[in-house]
Amino acid sequence: MPQTATNNSAGMTDSRQRNSWRELSLILPLFKWFWSFALTLFGLALVTFAMTRLSPIDPALQLVGDHASKSTYEQARVELGLDKPLPLQFLRYVETALSGNFGLSISTGQPVAKDIARTFPATIELATAAIVIGAVVGLSLGIAAAMRRGTWVDSLVRFVSLFGYSVPIFWLGLLMLLLFYARLHWAPGPGRADVVFQYTVKPVTGFALIDTWMSGKAGAFRDALAHLVLPATVLAFHALAAISRLTRAAVLTELGQEYVTTARAKGASLRRIVFVHILPNISGTLLTVIALSYASLLEGAVLTETVFAWPGIGRYLTTAMFSGDMPAILGATLIVGASFVLLNALTDLGVARLEAGKKR
């Protein structure tokens, strides 16, 4: 009996140790992810802070104007903290950024945080619609090209990918407006909504499709959807080029693996091999490509928003640059950069979970 009790005690101890190691193996990746995320955000804040100090624009002079007295100018420098050493200025900058206080926009006269809350949902809506189109079309083209390697389908997909990489997006946007809006009258004009609906739907979430749907006005929803289709399609073109090209390469790589040869020897069709065996194996790669494309759309929608007069953060940032609005430039840059970092971090977590699921 004493020996049995000792064995049971030892077994319980081993079980507890295994559980502790299992919990630690789950916590460590999260800790490493959080640490990497925090360091990246710190680096982003450092870069944006350096922009303010290396820029020829004087924030105090912008605040008081060119004709202000020297005493007024010096008082503005004190209020902005520009009289403090650079490390203290950086700490103050980080503190205000974490609190969401980016100052007042010189262009709009509104708090930058309020402007971002108004414009960023429009960019998210445009980029989300674009990545849905780009992912669906890009994956389909990439798989079709890999399954029909060397045929006219493969050549066409490769041409589309090359064209999507090469064509300037602003030129493509202007061409689409000329063709579908000015000539064929199939698409509505620039903006997010016609004037008749622009002031009749109360903005609740900032997303035009959601707000018009919640309003119960079918005409307003159709109008918002019609305005979204053309700019989202133009923005999606570059994304689908990248997604189709990398999907084709990943599928072709897997087609040369031994498990594919074994499946073919057993009589499995190419379609079954691709959709049942290959796609689950490259799901991590595809997730990474789509997520990075989405992040690039969020930060790269500036030209599309400018061409289509889309009131997103890209157009807001462009206006701020032309007017030298440093608070708006820094606030928008920091938000877009933080979104990019967050998407990258979430992608890493998603890929890690997919890889862990495969091992099980």
TrEMBL record:
InterPro entries, alphabetically? BPD_transp_1_N, MetI-like, MetI-like_sf
GO MF entries: dipeptide transmembrane transporter activity
Q: Which top-rank group of organisms is this from?
A: Bacteria
Q: Which residues form the signal peptide?
A: none
Give the matching Pfam families.
BPD_transp_1 (PF00528), BPD_transp_1_N (PF19300)
GO terms for cellular component: plasma membrane
Residue ranges of the TM segments: 26-51, 126-147, 159-182, 224-243, 274-295, 328-351
Topology class, membrane: Multi-pass membrane protein
Q: Where in the cell is it found?
A: Cell membrane
Instruction: Note the CDD domains from the entry.
Output: TM_PBP2
Q: Which Gene3D superfamilies match?
A: MetI-like (1.10.3720.10)
Q: Give the UniProt keywords, A-Z.
A: Cell membrane, Membrane, Plasmid, Transmembrane, Transmembrane helix, Transport
- The ABC transmembrane type-1 domain sits at 120-347
Q: Which family does it belong to?
A: Belongs to the binding-protein-dependent transport system permease family.
The protein's name? ABC transporter permease
Organism this protein belongs to: Rhizobium grahamii CCGE 502
